[in-house]
Design a protein that fits this description.
Helices cover about 25% and strands about 15% of the residues. It contains 2 helices and 4 strands; from the N terminus they run E-E-H-E-E-H.
């Protein structure tokens, strides 16, 4: 049997605390800064989200 590397993804969800004057301001702050905010410390796997990142054999071949 051969072994192959398959690119996979999965999703997690959690809660992030943001300081703001209002909920609307907190949402806007998150939207403007999400690339620089830490990931939540407490998170859960989203059931059914485990999947191949790509189903195209030519693309997956690049990982071999």
């Amino acid at each position: 049997m051969k072994k192959f590397k398959l690119p996979v993804t999965w999703e997690v969800s959690g809660f992030l605390e943001v300081e703001a004057e209002s909920l609307k301001e907190a949402i806007v702050y998150f939207e403007n800064n999400s690339d620089n905010l830490p990931l939540p410390d407490d998170f859960d796997y989203v059931d059914g989200s485990y999947d191949l990142s790509c189903h195209e054999e030519e693309y997956v071949e690049l990982y071999q």
